[in-house]
Each structure stands twice: as structure tokens, then as C-alpha cells.
Design brief:
The mean pLDDT is about 95. The longest helix is centred in the C-terminal third of the chain and has 24 residues. By secondary structure, this protein is of the alpha+beta class. Helices cover about 35% and strands about 20% of the residues. Helix 1 packs across helix 5, helix 1 runs antiparallel to helix 12 and helix 5 packs across helix 12. It has one domain: 4-Layer Sandwich (Chorismate synthase, AroC fold). The chain binds ligand EPS.
Length: about 400
């Protein structure tokens, strides 16, 4: 069982995370984690905060001479902006007069947060509900990502649309076609999308999106979008149909929906299938070269809550950032009067970052179920378990059904 916790406020001193349950002897280094943190910070449309922060991790425990010890791994990411927030975010009581925030922003956790936690200052809700926390998640999930790479599992993502601007080519259909998806795997996708300022795969679409973001900025508005995350190299048999909380699709949905501002999710051709005949929705089974495969992958790599061995395809929708520079209606809680909601420094678009965070969360979910099936105390033992299962899989099926 792997688990992780994160701690830290957006403008507090730092973010921290503790990751527990990974086997010993997994090679890991700070540079690998920093690379993922950098990818999360990138993207046209981020606000001024990203000019202040350069996220890097300090590993505090659990790793020796570049390898995991099997003990809890703790990590720290500094908030450079904290220098500007020392009094506003003081841990101890302060005599300084700190202005309270009294106008909740619609779409944020502001109003629900003060209602639930009995606060007299919206700042107390803002700080932890901020998507800054996702930096710690990416650090934690980098361990999962590195672990999966040991088994040839690679995770990639691209932004499908921002502000309703879609690509000319239907990349999702390409992923559903098994002949095409082989050359369109997790690694390949990232080698293309990492080069784009908005993580898209078409140059013309990128140009149009950047123009739309410029327009949003000018109007003091924000935009959301859709993105796709793909995991390739996942073996058959992760997850289960035996109980709701052991289904791989349910686990993935939980992970991705937990990312700030994600409001929609589908696995494979989810919504398309709902409009079409079953014959156009399912993936015909083919037997070739001692292996089972499918003509298509509309199931998005999961059937009956279990991985099929084909790429796992997740598509999600992120709502526009809720902090607007041209505000919408709200209520000032100090006077209980209708007002325009408060302005606060923020991002205009964070869909590219969201896609990278979703890669990380998907890596976590797959690693969780992978270790449940193959987990040993060391990476070597885990590899033996994995090879024992995968190398015998086909023969077991053939022998079981011989003569039936
Ligand atoms: C965020 C608001 C902005 C973002 C922040 C998330 O921060 P600030 O209020 O300091 O300008 O930049 O995201 C990050 C700091 C990050 O690292 O992703 C929010 O309200 O969620």
C-alpha cells in the first residue's frame, strides 16, 4: 500500500510531502523530480506568481546514495513568495493589523471554506485550497512515475482545447485506433506537447489559443479547457471488478477529479459511446503472435475495472480559474451587502499545468494498483513478481481452456 500526504499553505514558508510504501533500491534523484516540477510551472497564461517561484525539491529522508531505502520519503519545496507574506502568514500571534478578506470569490472555496471551518477571514480558506498544493503532489508522484518507468510504463499528456479552440486533427480518435496509437505513446506525446507553450500538438491551434488567452487577459477574464492523459505499457490485470474501491477506473477518476478546478472526466470513448451503438463502442478481440489485442481501444485501456494492457486514456475538463480581474457579483460579509467580487493576483489559464498534474496523479493511481498486485519489499523482488506473472500469462490461459 502506498500513500502520501502533503502539507503547506500557498504563501506559507514551504510545501512538504511524505511518501510511504515504495520498495527499496528504486533509483531516484532530485533532478528527476525537479524536471517534473518545472513542467508543472510551465505554460502561457500563468500569472506573476510563477515569476517568483522556481520550484525545486529537497529530499529530507528515505533516499541514500540515489536509491530508496523503503522508508518514508520526505520532501520540501520552498515558497519563495513567503518573504513577502511573513506577517500576513505569521505562525505566531501578531500585533500587526492584518486586513481580513471579507468578499468571497464565486467558484473558489472561499464561502464554503469559512462556512465549514468557522473562520472570520477568507484568507484562511484561500491558502490551502490554492492549487499551489499541487507542486507537492507532483513531487510525491514523481516517485511513482520513476517506479513505473522501471517497468516500461510511460505517461504523457496534451491539451486538447482551451477556450473552445480544438485542433484540426482528431487526436483522440487516433488514440482509439490501435494501429496508430503504437506510435503515439506517452513518451512521444510529451516530446511534442512539452515543446508547446500551451501543451497542444498543432502549431496553428497554439497560435489561436494564445490569441484567445491574450483577449482573456485584456478583459480581465480567465479560460478553462480539456486535456488528455495517456499511460502506455500498463500490464493486463491491474484493478478488479470484485469491489467498487478496487476498480482501476474508479481509482483514476478519484485521483484526477481531486485536482483543483477539474469538473469533468471520461475514460476512453466514454461520452461518445453513450451516443452510439454497442457495435461501434466496443473493442473487437484479436489473437495474434501468442497475444490478445484489440482492433480499437475505445475502452481506454480498462474493462470491468481491470487494465486490458492497452494504453489508459483519460480525458478531463478544467473550468476557468475562478479569480477574475473583472469581477462578478458577490457579497461583502462584513456588511452583508451586494458587491463586485474581489480582485486577487492569479493565473489566467492553467490547463497545461493541470495536464501535468493529471499525469502525476495517474502515475500514482497506476503505481498503487501495480504494487498491490506485484509489490515486494525491494525493486528486485517486485520485478521478479512482475516477470513471473507476465511471462506465464498466455500459457496459463491456453492451458486452462485447452480442450474445453
Ligand atoms: C492560485 C493562485 C495563484 C497561482 C497559484 C494558484 O497564486 P497567487 O495567489 O500567489 O498569485 O499562481 O498557483 C501556484 C502558486 C502554483 O504553484 O501553481 C490559486 O488560487 O489556486
Amino acid at each position: 500500500m502506498i500513500r502520501f500526504l502533503t502539507a503547506g499553505e500557498s504563501h506559507g514558508k514551504s510545501l512538504t510531502t511524505i511518501v510511504e510504501g515504495f520498495p527499496s533500491n528504486l533509483k531516484i534523484d532530485t533532478e528527476y523530480i525537479n524536471q517534473q516540477l518545472k513542467r508543472r510551472q510551465f505554460g502561457y497564461g500563468r500569472g506573476l506568481r510563477m515569476k517568483i517561484e522556481t520550484d525545486t525539491v529537497e529530499i529530507l529522508s528515505g533516499v541514500r546514495f540515489g536509491k530508496t531505502l523503503g522508508t518514508p520519503i520526505s520532501m520540501l519545496i520552498k515558497n519563495f513568495d513567503w518573504e513577502n507574506w511573513k506577517s500576513k502568514m505569521s505562525v505566531s500571534e501578531t500585533d500587526e493589523q492584518i486586513e481580513k478578506i471579507t468578499i468571497p470569490r464565486p467558484g473558489h472555496a472561499d464561502l464554503v471554506g469559512i462556512s465549514k471551518y468557522n473562520f472570520d477571514d477568507i484568507r484562511n480558506s484561500i491558502e490551502r485550497s490554492s492549487a499551489r498544493e499541487t507542486a507537492a503532489r507532483v513531487a510525491a508522484c514523481s516517485i511513482a512515475r520513476k517506479f513505473l518507468e522501471e517497468f516500461g510504463i510511460h505517461i504523457g499528456s496534451f491539451v486538447e482545447s482551451i477556450g473552445g479552440i480544438y485542433p484540426k486533427e482528431n487526436f483522440i480518435q487516433k488514440l482509439f485506433d490501435n494501429n496508430l496509437s503504437a506510435s503515439f505513446n506517452g513518451k512521444k506525446i510529451n516530446s511534442l506537447s512539452d515543446k508547446s507553450q500551451v501543451r497542444v500538438l498543432e502549431f496553428e491551434q497554439e497560435r489561436k489559443i494564445i490569441n484567445k488567452i491574450k483577449l482573456a487577459k485584456k478583459k480581465g477574464d480567465t479560460l478553462g479547457g480539456t486535456f488528455v492523459v495517456v499511460a502506455t505499457g500498463v500490464p493486463v490485470g491491474l484493478g478488479s471488478f470484485v469491489h467498487f474501491d478496487r476498480r482501476l477506473d474508479a481509482e483514476i477518476a478519484h485521483s484526477i477529479m481531486s485536482i483543483n478546478a477539474v469538473k469533468g472526466l471520461e475514460i476512453g470513448a466514454g461520452f461518445y459511446s453513450a451516443e452510439n451503438f454497442g457495435s461501434a463502442s466496443h473493442d473487437e478481440i484479436i489473437f495474434s503472435k501468442n497475444k490478445f489485442t484489440r482492433k480499437t481501444n475505445r475502452a481506454g485501456g480498462i474493462e470491468g475495472g481491470i487494465s486490458t494492457g492497452l494504453p489508459i486514456i483519460v480525458r478531463a475538463a478544467m473550468k476557468p480559474i475562478a479569480t477574475l480581474m473583472s469581477p462578478i457579483e458577490s457579497v461583502d460579509l462584513s456588511r452583508m451587502k451586494k458587491v463586485q467580487s474581489r480582485r486577487e493576483r492569479s493565473d489566467f489559464v492553467a490547463v497545461p499545468a493541470c495536464a501535468v498534474i493529471a499525469e502525476s496523479m495517474l502515475a500514482w493511481s497506476i503505481a498503487k494498483f501495480f504494487l498491490e498486485k506485484f509489490g515486494g519489499d525491494s525493486i528486485e523482488e517486485t520485478k521478479e513478481n512482475y516477470l513471473n506473472y507476465t511471462s506465464k500469462l498466455f500459457n496459463r490461459i491456453r492451458n486452462n481452456f485447452k480442450g474445453s
